[in-house]
Amino acid sequence: MSNTVFDPKQHWENIYAKKGPQEVSWFQAMPTVSLDLFAEYRVPVGARIIDVGGGDSSLVDHLLDRGFTDVTVLDISGAALQKAQERLGTKGTTVQWIESDATTFDAPAPFDVWHDRAVFHFLTSEADVDRYLDRLSRLLKPGGLLILGTFSENGPEKCSGIPVHRYSEAEMVARLQRLCDRIKCFTVDHVTPFDTVQNFLFCAFRKAAF
Q1: What pLDDT is stored for residue 1 in this prediction?
Q2: Residue ranges of the alpha helices (H) in 19-164?
Q3: Torsion sign across C-alpha atoms 64, 66, 68, 71
Q4: Cβ-based neighbour number of residue 118 at 10 Å
């Protein structure tokens, strides 16, 4: 039996070093669900936004195209962030890029919108979940919007070769209720570049304004 300790940073650096955008299951040319939620909740273009685990996701491209001016992308993988920067070119110079673990990072100021479609379901220990929620509680402004996408109860048990935690709406709300109020939750099928289907749970929450 191997005693090798799993190194999440090395894992994701290897993935992004070896694979192109359409060679990973989470690829979306158009992140419609997330963009629709930004529109539904009328996020102002000057809002301070963070995409947690954004990597080389195209969400940042579409936010910039829609006029958003204060976007931060956080990812544990420097290779992922570099790919996004190269893709965006000069357009990406206004973006704040943070290479860090989502459970340990810090930022100079809190955010109006916290978006995560990539990280939370990979946190399979209570300690990691607690550290993540501690960051969320400190770095999402009162009244701020949380958009959280995870694998649903009908989603895959693993992604990128590692286990994930699949969420029901009840469990998601229970996890977040001490920090945020539920606005709505729904499930949606994501069709991967390999023509497989992954069922996601998306929830929108609002942090208490006091």
Answers
A1: 43
A2: 32-40, 59-65, 78-88, 126-139
A3: negative
A4: 23
